[in-house]
Amino acid sequence: MRKRFSLITLGVVVVLALLAGVQLNRMFSGDNIYLQVGKFNDVLNLTYKYYVDDVDSQKLTESAINGLLGQLDPHSVYIPASAMKKVTEDFQGSFEGIGIEYQVLNDTLLVVAPIVGGPSEALGIQSGDKIVRIDDSSAIGITQEGVQKKLRGPKGSHVKVTIVRTGIKNNLEFDIVRDKIPIYTVDASFMIDGETGYINVNRFAATTHDEFMEALGKLQAAGMKRLVLDLRTNAGGYLEQAYKMVDELLPKGRKIVYTKGRRPEFDEEYIASGAGRLQHIGLVVLVNNGSASASEIVAGAIQDWDRGLIVGETTFGKGLVQRQFDLKDGSAFRLTTARYYTPSGRLIQRPYDKDKMKYQREAFERDEQEGENISHKAEKDSTRQQFKTMGGRIVYGGGGITPDYIVKSDRLNEYSVQLRSKLVFLQAADKYLDQHGAELRANYGKDSRRFVEESDVTPQMLEDLKEIAKAKGIAFNQELFDKDLRYVKAFTKAYVARGIWGNEGSVQVMLKEDAQFKKAVSLFPEAEKIAKAMTSGQ
Known about the structure:
Layout: H1 2-27, H2 33-50, H3 57-70, E1 77-79, H4 81-92, E2 94-97, E3 100-105, E4 108-114, H5 119-123, E5 130-134, E6 137-138, H6 144-151, E7 158-164, E8 172-177, E9 179-182, E10 186-191, E11 196-201, H7 208-221, E12 226-230, H8 239-247, E13 255-260, E14 268-271, E15 282-287, H9 294-304, E16 309-312, E17 320-326, E18 332-341, H10 356-362, E19 371-372, E20 386-388, E21 394-396, E22 405-406, H11 414-421, H12 424-444, H13 448-454, H14 459-471, H15 478-483, H16 485-511, H17 515-522, H18 524-536
Helix pairs in contact: 8-9, 12-14, 12-16, 13-16
């Protein structure tokens, strides 16, 4: 018995030793996280201690973090503490300051527009005002960074500004009490005609659904029966806000989007509640290659359920969901934790490799053929996986959302690009408003649509624009100027409209020259036919 017991004991010990050896091997293998952290700690400490020159340990650590995340996907990124404040403001939808849109133009701080509901607007500060002093310091020659440093500040704090206004002899002084200033994600919302509404959304932040509903209320009160939803150049944001937007558009029980990750806690499914206010109106969604992430969730759900039509250019192709992890020093990083899928099961994410520049560039270098694409024959030679919409149309995954009607955006030539990038349009509009702003306000009041229809850019405005461009070192090119003349006029007029009516005025002007928008409006009969088939199939 003793001998048998000893053999059994020995066998158990051997098995335990083997198991322990396996665990120890794992502990010291290359996949063990603690070993890798220790390795990095050793390298950092030894470098800090022995390197030939002084080293910045924070800089080294941040470089290592960027290198680590760079081995993953293009959307897992590190955000330094210095950038976190702006990132938070952008997505929470507010900051604290005096509430102006501004531009430093020729060493002068120009008020482009007061932000609606902010303290500057309440005090009567106007577009075109020049801020020449801030508190006791001159604002002449101030930088963009200097403006934020001096004009932003805690809610309830005071700042004094001295303003030069055209037509008024003496300088104006304002004592502004800083407040919480909203950063709007709905750039513009207005009626195109008696029954067609237009809403432009620039990103999906914490306030987007609330803003969207406010815009809807205004348009529905004006008689809206159909909607152009413009998501062009909307790079995305909060998935939940995209879900809430689509929830306004789909019948109860329809899947909007779902996510799948390596860990089950990141698996989620979003279903329409049936409480939406826009389940039966005609719908066309505008997208382009700058529409990404949350924008693609909206477009994908609309397309998969045949709820309306998608018009424009193929979207960016970002189907990855990030979670932000805050770090102790105020920095953070965003880590991809799941992939998202449209209702039909499409993964929108484009393939990617380690070349992030190539990945970004590919979305803007597609050579798409313009025209009707209801049956998605434009992608027929694609190696991408096929799926079907609710109505049986073939659509494709793995490469963004390809529109039902492909319409390319117009490309400006080199001369026009320089005029825009060097703020020539803005400066020309500012000069015109200095001379005629009071007259325009008196003539048109709040009626920006009448301004869009009745006014035109004068020959003198174009001559002023050429002179401003010349002073900025932009060589005049008659051929290129003539080629883009209608866009040159549109941009100049849009900046004038922005100076009086804000974004809604400028957007109304630009839509007059917008081929994608014009096509979208013409397609409502087709969009409504598709949506009717979807509704009858409930």
